[in-house]
């Protein structure tokens, strides 16, 4: 067993990544650095791809293409900066470009990852005007209703909501990933959240979870 304290072991792993001499780095060293730093993000990227595509096979293809492009341009990544955001930008750009080229929306739904969205549905966004009791009522909706409400969001809105509220990226990072101005990201996020909560409130009223006239004006304002 190593006698080094945990803090020292962590330092030994992290510090060399931010001190790489890119000009002197050999292809073999770059490949090893990519495997060490980028491959641990594989599961996160696959989960993100699955939520974007709603299809396991498409998600696998998207991740494979993302890693291939990331590897070929890894010499452009600045060590010590946010590798996760850099990888997600490639993933998101690939998805947007492939989706627009195909001019279709993935139809197959996945049951994985619904827990993140249930947490989001239960979260209180004070700007929406929904009362806390109503947010708790929305949290009791069946998973199928939550999935349906998410699937009904326009693609750009759904991506913005996912990247911000599930992955926790900042506006600037999302703007770079989606290749749009920050103001556009903020607008899509605001409208996406609002549309999602309108849909969830409608489902809740249909199921009798909320009174028929509960929160309509507040949510739609």
From TrEMBL:
InterPro entries for the chain: RNA_pol_sigma-70-like, RNA_pol_sigma-70_dom, RNA_pol_sigma70_actinobac, RNA_pol_sigma70_r2, RNA_pol_sigma70_r4_t2, RNA_pol_sigma_r2, RNA_pol_sigma_r3/r4-like, WH-like_DNA-bd_sf
Keyword tRNA processing: no
Chain intervals for the UniProt region annotation (Disordered): 1-25
CDD domains tied to this protein: Sigma70_r4
Keyword Phosphoprotein assigned: no
Stretches assigned to the RNA polymerase sigma factor 70 region 4 type domain: 145-196
Gene Ontology molecular-function annotations: DNA binding; sigma factor activity
GO biological process: DNA-templated transcription initiation; response to stress
Domain RNA polymerase sigma-70 region residues, every copy: 41-105
Keywords assigned: DNA-binding, Sigma factor, Transcription, Transcription regulation
UniProt family annotation: Belongs to the sigma-70 factor family. ECF subfamily.
Protein name: Sigma-70 family RNA polymerase sigma factor
């Amino acid at each position: 067993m190593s006698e080094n304290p945990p803090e020292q072991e962590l330092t030994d792993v992290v510090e060399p990544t931010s001190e790489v001499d890119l000009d002197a780095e050999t292809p073999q060293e770059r490949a090893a650095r990519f495997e060490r730093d980028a491959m641990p993000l594989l599961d996160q990227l696959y989960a993100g791809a699955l939520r974007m595509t709603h299809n396991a096979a498409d998600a696998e293809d998207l991740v494979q293409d993302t890693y291939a492009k990331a590897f070929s341009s890894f010499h452009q990544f600045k060590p010590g900066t946010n590798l996760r955001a850099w990888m997600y930008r490639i993933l998101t750009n690939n998805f947007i470009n492939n989706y627009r080229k195909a001019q279709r929306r993935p139809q197959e739904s996945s049951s994985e990852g619904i827990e993140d969205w249930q947490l989001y549905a239960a979260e209180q966004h004070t700007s929406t005007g929904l009362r806390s009791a109503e947010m708790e009522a929305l949290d009791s909706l069946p998973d199928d209703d939550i999935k349906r409400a998410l699937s009904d969001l326009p693609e750009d809105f759904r991506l913005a909501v996912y990247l911000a509220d599930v992955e926790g990226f900042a506006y600037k990072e999302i703007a770079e990933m989606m290749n749009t101005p920050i103001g556009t990201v903020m607008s899509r996020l605001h409208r996406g959240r609002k549309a999602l909560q309108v849909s969830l409130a409608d489902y809740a009223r249909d199921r009798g979870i909320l009174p028929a006239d509960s929160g309509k004006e507040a949510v739609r304002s």
